[in-house]
Amino acid sequence: MTDYDWNNARPYKVKRTGIKAPSSNWSDIECPFCQQQVRAYWWSISGGGKRCLCGAKHNSAGMTAQPIKKKASA
Ligand SMILES: [Zn+2]
């Protein structure tokens, strides 16, 4: 399981929103870390959060956090 660094989360930009019939709202989100856009369905964001291609996660509060890299134990 991956932990995310919400203490250093950044707000993401919503480039556009839309609705896919019958009732699936989506948003095109621009990642504040890698600037890639992903289309995230709201049920996905409000569930576990939407993963970016870079590994960061977008949540329903409008924030994106990067995964915490765990150091290999010595
Ligand atoms: Zn990203």
In short:
By secondary structure, the protein is mainly beta. It contains 1 helix and 7 strands, in the order ββββαβββ. Strands 1-7-6-5 form a 4-stranded antiparallel β-sheet. Strands 2-3-4 form a 3-stranded antiparallel β-sheet.
Would you give an account of this structure?
The chain has 74 residues and is mainly beta. The chain has one domain (6-65). 7% of the residues lie in helices and 39% in strands. A four-stranded antiparallel sheet has the order 1-7-6-5. The protein has a three-stranded antiparallel sheet with strand order 2-3-4. Strand 2 and strand 3 (24-30) form a beta hairpin. It is elongated and about 50 Å long. 20% of the residues are buried. It binds zinc ion. Zinc ion binds next to loops.
Element string (H = helix, E = strand): EEEEHEEE
Q: Mean pLDDT across all residues, rounded? A: 94
Helix count equals 1
Helix content: under 10%
Shape: elongated
Instruction: Indicate the proportion of strand residues.
Output: 35-45%
Distance between the termini: 20 Å
Could you say how many structural domains there are in total?
1
Q: Could you name the ranges where pLDDT drops below 50 across 5 or more consecutive residues?
A: none
Note the main sheet.
Answer: 4 strands, antiparallel
Quaternary structure? single chain
What is the radius of gyration?
13 Å
